Amino acid sequence: MTVSIEHQADLADGYERESVYVEMQDGCRIAVDVLHPAKGGRRLDGALPTVLHATPYRRSFVITGLAKSAAVYQEQLADLQPGDLVTQYEERPIARELIHRGYNFVSMDLRGTGASFGAEFADYWRAGHDIAQVVEWIAAQPWATSRVGMVGISYEGMVQFHTAAFAPPALACIAPQYPGLPQCISDGGLAIASFVRTWEMLHKGLSENEPSAPVDGPDGETLRAEAQAERAPGAYAMIEAISAMEPRQVTQLTVADLSESTAERTDLGLAGAVGPWFTSAHAQISAANVPTYLVTGWWDLTFPGYLIDFFNRLTLENKKLLIGAWNHGQGGDSELLRWFDHWLKDVQNGVMDEPPVHFETSEPSGSTVWKSAPRLPLPEAQPRTFYLSSETSGTIASVNDGSLSQAAGPEPTEAKYDVDHSVSLGMLNRHSYYVDDVFIDTVDLVARGQRCLTFTTPPLEAGVEVTGAPAVDLEIATTADRGAIVATLEQVQADGSVAYLTEGFLNFEHRRTGDAETGHDGPFWHRYLSSDLLPVRPGEPMAIRFELYPISCIVRAGDRIRLTLAGADADNLVVPTIGDTATLDVTLDGDRASRLLLPIVNPHLAPTATVAEGAFDMTDEGFAFRRPQDPPLRNRQS
């Protein structure tokens, strides 16, 4: 029955927990917590809708004080003490809010993690098959209705797509938040060592020092020990190989051959060949037709552009995309509450009457505007070309202090750069901030820029909106037989302060571009396959073309835009020339001038994006970078 009313809040003020094993078809036992909503200590009567959360990061645990979790969760648990039990209610605001709104919240340890049995956890399709069985188990319980939704961040978001492909009948909707992709491990043909180190430290530390709680009953601890004894050795072998790689190995170790290979999964009853990642299975996921609300942020690790492409490939009847001015896992909860109320409670709250895409446009101050559109990229965001010029900008004492001009100079010149392998964006950058802070915090960009090549526009005469993926088309020669380029886009404000906007990077041997077989709305695409590798010959100019991660930002009149080029990011990337010397020659001006392409919204074209209206009303769910009004961290861990 359809109920045309707004949500009635605070049906519950707490929960009642039960923890059990659910046996899979192959006999593997999966540890599950059921958090039933309760009011005044009494569990709510009747069958209630359920939201499921599947995680490799512990469904529940007892605080030991010996492990370090993501900072966003440290903040939630700051007032708890060693010995306290932590469920998703204590750790996740969205779980708490859903329970208060009268939802059961079920959390499960994925196979091979926590208190669940199983040898390993990296078979994502096996995980999806398990989760689909838990969905149907939930629907068969007397405390549940026949409709189940899913929620979860990162790895937990990724496996929602792997689950949807199996089309379990009771799965009414999913809400993948910041779903994980292999590009967090390597992208641009380079290893993102800072992410790898941080994730390995986080996952191993939690598993070993603050493990998942046992299920209920006198045998719970014994069963958990038996489950952990099943773990296969070498669970972190791939991660450890990347952490320990020699720089010269990075080209071969970051090829995408394995992640792009496909195979039949008839052992799981999945139709058609798939690769290990959900992005290979858009056909199967579309055929399952589970309503999907995909959430990401413009500074969500390396993910936003890849997720926009995947969203566009899905042919679901009901799909939505939310992109905030957020980093990994930061916002979106309030909109997902509307999503679950609609699909699991039949509340007519307008969530499906609005455009399918909502995105947030921001300024460095953290001031933002939410907009709605039929799709991204925006057709009105047209690439505007800025040529890299030898003309001095007078704004920074960098290696060259060049300019960005809308017309190339007549005579070609070169900007020479001796690669400084100590240049870095710091350890709190977009790839690895998330254990030590809830905000991205790059190093001083002026001091960093002084050790790089920089190209800066004059002050803008009129403000512009940049929405989409910036790109660079560079001509570079190097004295080495390998190398890489790291590009950052920055906003130089009228007061001289410099704000990070986005970045991109490319291994020279991965410079071959081509068409994306599954579609890509952007100027350049790389497959990163071994068959696409090209040799680097010292002194021979190369066309180095790649996109930076997409953004949506306002650059005010009087501000400037700066492109900074480096050959390394010491704290974050494994580049192939570490330990060696290399000099780069970047072509400026003339017929072969290197250039920056910015997707600037053209005010003279009919807009497809408009300021969000109607029932969509996002509260302030944070900004990727710290603002003056943001309180200091008060986490329980040093």
Describe it for me?
- By secondary structure, the chain is of the alpha+beta class.
- The chain is 19% helix and 30% strand.
- The chain has 14 helices and 32 strands.
- Strands 1, 2, 3, 4, 7, 8, 9, 14, 15, 16, 17 and 32 form a 12-stranded mixed beta sheet that branches.
- β14 (292-299), α12 and β15 (319-327) form a beta-alpha-beta unit.
- α4 (124-139) crosses α5 (155-164) and α6 crosses α8.
- The longest helix is centred in the N-terminal third of the chain and has 17 residues, at 193-209.
- Mean pLDDT is 94; it is low at 1-7.
Please give the largest β-sheet: 12 strands, mixed
The rounded Rg comes to 25 Å
Overall pLDDT confidence: 94
Based on DSSP secondary structure assignment, what is the total number of beta strands? 32
Specify the overall morphology: globular
Alpha-beta classification: alpha+beta
Number of helices, where a helix is a run of at least 4 consecutive DSSP H or I residues? 14
* Helix-residue proportion: 10-25%
| Contiguous uncertain segments of 5+ residues | 1-7
- The proportion of residues in beta strands is 25-35%
Distance between the first and last residues' Cα: 51 Å
